[in-house]
Amino acid sequence: MPSAAVAGVPTNFILSTSHSANSNSNGVWSASTSGASRYRLVSGEGRNGLLFLGQTAAQDARIPWTTSSRVGFSSQFTNQPNQSKYAQFSDGAVTTGAEARLIELEAQLQANSQTARDAIYAALNTLRTGGAPIGGSSAANVTVAALTTGAPTTQDAAIDLLYKERAYWLWLTGHRLGDLRRLVRIYKRGTEAVFPTGTLPTPLDGTYGTSTTVTVPFAERNNPNFQGCIDEK
């Protein structure tokens, strides 16, 4: 069971990638924060996106970011928000003890009972108030205020809450796409209820597509060991 596999992982654990001026820059910093970066931080994207940058609430300590006047790779996008989780040469977070606890809670969720949902809600608050590392520039544990909504009373609402907590604890660690795909594959959510959909944000024209995978770059398509994605979901 996945929960048994992570039972011995302490909450303050972190697995990191290393970067330095003698090797290479942190990839997330390079892609999202360095000069005219090709990627941008998004929030509330395509109807279904979470409000990562806190437009309707105080900034979450698990998602550190700052405003800037930076112009992105496309000059259409100005005043790009900068993530401040990773500096140019700071370690990159692969996974943390917070994920171990969240894996245990997802296993507990499979009981599909109110008793389990109550226990999961309490455990999420223990994790939030007790703290866990998020990686990057600071090795210190991050704490956030306890949830005050009360435990979810339906299984769908409990899944929503757990996956939102995963998204916030694991922000910029490469987990979100896999989580969205699992919501479709394992929990049978419709892709249009999970992935960004509808009209693209201004100044872009058009609508979101239906793909649920990352576009594979040409460098990897030339790799003879690359056989393509297993499926679209």
Q: Strand order, main sheet: write it out.
A: 1-4
Mean pLDDT figure: 91
Radius of gyration: 19 Å
N-to-C span:
23 Å
The fraction of residues in strands falls at 5-15%
Q: Regions with pLDDT < 50 over 5+ consecutive residues?
A: none
**Helix and strand sequence:** HEHEEEHHHHH
* Biggest sheet overview: 2 strands, antiparallel
- Work out the helix count: 7
Structural class: mainly alpha
What report would you give on this structure?
The structure is a single chain. By secondary structure, this protein is mainly alpha-helical. The chain has one domain. It is 30% helix and 6% strand. The strands form 2 sheets. It has a two-stranded antiparallel ribbon with strand order 1-4. Helix 3 packs antiparallel against helix 4, helix 3 runs antiparallel to helix 5 and helix 4 runs parallel beside helix 5. The model has no long low-confidence stretch (mean pLDDT 91).
What's this, in brief?
By secondary structure, this protein is mainly α.
List the helices and strands and how they pair.
Blueprint: H1 2-6, E1 14-17, H2 27-32, E2 65-66, E3 82-83, E4 92-96, H3 97-109, H4 114-130, H5 155-169, H6 176-185, H7 218-221
Antiparallel strand pairs: 1-4, 2-3
Helix pairs in contact: 3-4, 3-5, 4-5
